[in-house]
Design a protein that fits this description.
Distance between the termini: 62 Å
Structural class: alpha+beta
Helix content: 25-40%
Number of strands: 9
Radius of gyration: 17 Å
Shape: globular
């Protein structure tokens, strides 16, 4: 039964975004937010203007989906070479009760030290997740702990802070890397002067 709920939580947003993985035409999704980063400092998405952002929601106790996706994001960054400096990966915890800044910092260091972990109050996390239409639900475990079922899309945000693409969980990292590369290349072309472009 729990696996059925998990499958539905993952599949519904996946199906709804399957046809918008190259360009997100959902202007009502996304937007700026402010949370606490893994250094315990206030962090705003607005700080990343000029960079492409890879945004993923999850939690550190996640047994499979989150590690898989974070490993994929790390592969995207590694595959960009020096252009990775123009991209930032963000991991927003849906479990602020357990995912303190220190926990996030230690957890993300296993994947890629370029990643930034974000947490905040329960209300703040609900607001951000609602803005990106991320669904999550807590489930109690027999040992007294709990797990979270959550949707698992990767959100690619352009250099202007606008949601550009929603990549469903399960697509290979190479897909996200192509989307990121197209944004980086288009940005380089847009800053060229006509003289430069005709060379």
């Amino acid at each position: 039964m729990r696996m059925t709920r998990l499958a539905l939580l993952i599949m519904l947003p996946l199906l709804s975004s399957l046809f918008t993985t190259s360009q997100a035409s959902t202007s009502s999704i996304g937007g700026d937010f402010t949370l606490i980063n893994h250094e315990g400092e206030t962090f705003s998405l607005q700080q990343l203007r000029g960079k492409v952002v890879l945004l993923f929601f999850g939690y550190t106790y996640c047994p499979d989906i989150c590690p898989t996706e974070l490993a994929g994001v790390s592969r995207v960054l590694d595959g960009l070479g020096t252009d990775a400096d123009r991209v930032q990966g963000l991991f927003v915890s849906l479990d602020p009760e357990r995912d303190t800044p220190r926990v996030l910092k230690d957890y993300l260091s296993y994947f890629n030290r370029q990643l930034i972990g974000l947490t905040g109050s329960q209300d703040a996390i609900r607001q951000v997740s609602s803005r990106y239409r991320v669904r999550y639900q807590k489930h109690s475990l027999p040992n007294g702990s709990y797990s979270l079922d959550h949707s698992a899309n990767l959100f690619i945000i352009d250099q202007h802070g606008q949601l550009f693409s929603v990549v469903p969980y399960g697509l290979p990292p190479e897909h996200a890397q192509r989307v990121v590369r197209s944004l980086l290349d288009n940005n380089m072309q847009s800053v060229q002067s006509p003289k430069d472009a005709n060379r």
